[in-house]
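Q: What changes when pyridoxal-5'-phosphate is included in the input?
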Amino acid sequence: MTSETNNSGNTGYPSVNLNLNVRGLTPSTTLAINELSAKLIEQGRDIIKFGLGQSPFPVPRPVVEALKENAHQKDYLAVKGLRELRDAVAQYHGRKHSIQCNGDNVLVGPGSKELMFLIQLVYYGDLCIPTPSWVSYEPQARIIGRPVRWLRTQAKHNWGLMPEELEELCASDPDRPRLVILNYPHNPTGYSYGEDKLRRLAEVARRYRVVMLSDEIYGELHHTGQHTSIAEYYPEGTIISSGLSKWCGAGGWRLGTFTFPDNLHWLLDAMAAVASETFTATSAPIQFAAVKAFVGGPEIESYLSTSRKILSQLRFCRNAFFRYLRRLPFPCDMNVSKRIDCCSLNSADRINRSINFCRFLGSFDVT
Ligand SMILES: Cc1ncc(COP(=O)(O)O)c(C=O)c1O
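A: The predicted holo structure follows.
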């Protein structure tokens, strides 16, 4: 079909009328980086992929078996999730992180990413994100039309959020409602907070009654298995985000969970109301299979311990990456960490998005 334009510029087709918030929005950066990597590999380049957080491991056998056994589950389930799964997730957090909760505190969704979008939609307040960060938090805020307050971090603190930075932001307007996203083990740096830092961050969060969204999707993959949830120190204000995508190797199954404290039930209920008008419920067979994953057992623990061992050995990839960066002919007199600092802080050299950084890397042929 060809489009003909009449004198008034009318093509005869519906004109392009996009919501202002999504104009100029491109597909997720992680997907764009993946496509760029594939193109460079096709050209014969030696590429180490740090884009998509895709697990290299298969889904644990008992969980696959549970999915097979439940392939016939065809009914719409409750919007908040299968009762048995919500109970299993609550018990999992009780077992792993000593969190006092039950199935009523859990909301299940088609991936934690979708739940993050819902919380930003229903919560009325500032969204505060430490930078650098996973690439989807900010575009989600943009789609909803919510401004982001960036929290600065520094290389000398391994890009972790310092309690002083959070204090400074909150003290500037103490009564303002805030949703702070804390992500650890951290994407992209891998940094994880120790107990002392979590305790101090929790003190600040409590002082300013911040809602802390703790994105612990990589928690089980902490190399030494010593992940601690900030919910242990700030139980009344922390929502734990988790799911099957990383530790269970099932990103494509699309199942995420949020676990709320009792006093944030109003947020859970508002998110469930929006979910009931949008995705309705998460896939039934996947939810039945996920019960097995969250109930756990020796086979799953052994799978996790093997995954952690292998991942901790992959540090050499990270070190090779930094060696590679040091050999790049940077145009100005900056060391690598300062350069990344500039990238994340949107500074002078204009590499202000991860995809631009990858294009920049791809433009050099270092052998
Ligand atoms: C830090 C972080 N949080 C959340 C997600 C989304 O996970 P899900 O598959 O549960 O939507 C990802 C996925 O890459 C991630 O890296």
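Observations recorded in class: Residues 67 and 261 are 30 Å apart (CA to CA).
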